[in-house]
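Translate sequence into structure tokens.
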Amino acid sequence: MADFIKISYTGKIKDGRVFDTTREDIAKKEGIYDEKRTYKPLPIVVGEGHVVRGLDEALEGMKVGEEKTIEIPPEKGYGKRNPDLIRIVPLRKFKEQRITPIPGMPIEIDGRIARVQTIAGGRVRVDFNPELAGKTLVFDVKIEEKARTREDKIRFLLERSFNSSDNFGIKQAKKTLTITIPESAYKDRNILARKASFTAETFKYLDIDRIKFDEVWEKNKR
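Result follows.
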């Protein structure tokens, strides 16, 4: 069975620019801090594509506390750049939506994310390649924790879907799982998507056939 682990990491392009990290201090230092994000070790299932392929492969067999620096070529990262994914869009299409394109700006076109490359002669060149396509990546990674019991694994999966497993109740009865959701989580507007994500991963990775979610709503007392 695949390992359930938590990793801390810092990912950078080979030229040294950091593009992602689980560490708040590094995010602030590198100017990529996002106040909406919680910086902490990331729970993943090894070999399941929860991180880029090159990193996924390197994690196999690593021990808790072990650290590595891994260089990942484009074909095991975000892929090679595909020139067919570069399009020319008339500038008027942007004006119709009251958008002023700027080089580097992310933009959604036909439900897909692209980046503006250049604007000239009433035409805008946009690139649908992933931003890191064609780049050699370097990851500094450490195994922080490994799930030992089925309840550990359930809590890891809760963190993946709800960002935290704090104050969640877990009851196991053979192949039935009951999850009690704390108020801080069930009032999230994305609760249905989070439940669906957790359910799908739990059915996939654990020998569980039925999941029940409990929520307790109380009337405000004045």
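Note: The first helix runs from residue 24 to 29.
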